[in-house]
Amino acid sequence: MLEELTSKLESTFRRLRGYGKLTEKNIADSLKEIRRALLEADVNYKVVKDFVASVQKKAVGEEVLRSVTPGQMIVKIVHDEMVRLLGGTTATLKTAGIPPTIIMLVGLQGSGKTTFAAKLAKYLQKKNRKPLLVAADVYRPAAIQQLKILGRSINVPVYEEGIGDPVKIAFNAISYARQHMLDTIILDTAGRLHIDEQMMEELVKIKKRIRPHEILFVADGMTGQDAVNTASQFAERLNFDGVVLTKMDGDARGGAALSIKAITGKPIKFMGVGEKLEDIEQFHPDRMASRILGMGDVVTLVEKAQETIDQEKAAKLEQKLRKAEFDLEDFLDQLQQIKKMGSLESILRMIPGVGSQLKNAQVDEKNLVRVEAIINSMTKEERRNPKILNGSRRKRIAMGSGTRVQDVNQLMRQFEQMKKMMKQMKNKSFRGFGGMPFG
Ligand code: GDP
Fold this sequence. Notes:
By secondary structure, the chain is an alpha/beta fold. The chain has 21 helices and eight strands. Strands 3-2-4-1-5-6-7-8 form an eight-stranded mixed β-sheet, with helices on both faces. The site of guanosine-5'-diphosphate has 18 residues, from helix 6. Residues 302-341 form a coiled coil.
């Protein structure tokens, strides 16, 4: 996510921090670089201009120049301005006083609206809400079918009437939700390839009649300023409440994320960060600014770990580690827990300082798959007691997992190293994912 922008800003900051003393020229040069980086990231021209002007105003102050670490001070100023640009504080979803809360999703076709509907349902489910997905895209039977499949995969009911009047469907869905004690309705409305008057009229009508508590505009983050322009038009007609930026995992530049609040006045509330239904993140301007500036995002990382890692298993694992009884079955278990947290790359990027190192190195997800295949090809006995893995067993395992004997050997070496490390930390409290063979 946003790696291009991050790497440019990081190199500017590295230089800035390196100067013992800052001169007006150093600052002006850095600002020029920041300006260029933002423009190349497809951030709106006016937004960039205001941003740089406001950093400049603060950066040339006496206080900064006279401080012990002027470079650091400027980095902080850029960070704070970026937080402001991204919306300042975290914007949350509104909820109804009397359920059900109605959340209406709007956006162009292909923006990731239907996928997001299911992601949001799953997200709310984890927060003990009882969502109902409603298929109000009455023009595309395929979209209704897609929603049904997604709903089934996460055990969330889907209300649909096939082709019909979306307002009537929404009303019926509200009754259905009341009857079935479902507290949140997620309305997936019809999108078109481009903005057209008929679609807008329909959405305005649904808004007027149904009065949703929250309207979220869903946009493909990768489309940069196109997303911002579409958002402006939707904002004008529909006055929605918040933005969802999808496909941020594929967005190296970040133009939409950095412009949309300033241009439309509407905050970003969620991001889609992958194709899987757990790839959704609430949008936190401060955390996002830290990520963009290459400072990582430890808070989100810890939250993800807490959410996905099975606490009971973690406790058991800790006990085993204390006794240094860790075997390959536990190893496999741990691997699977990490995979649940999302793509390996997205996890690693949240660790401060790792982002820039990853820049050119592709994280080898295949390696994880390979490790899993190798362990899966072992017998229970072999997993519990890896010492018995002699040459012929290793050969068999390599054949069975479609890997090479070297791969098996490498894994065993890594596993031994990890065990050694764990023995050393035996007396410390240790949970979760240490020393995994990442790639
Ligand atoms: P809709 O037409 O707006 O309902 O769009 P869909 O939900 O069908 O999504 C369009 C495509 O984008 C599908 O192939 C999705 O898998 C993909 N997609 C949606 N959200 C994300 C995301 O956050 N990341 C990635 N990489 N792909 C996504």
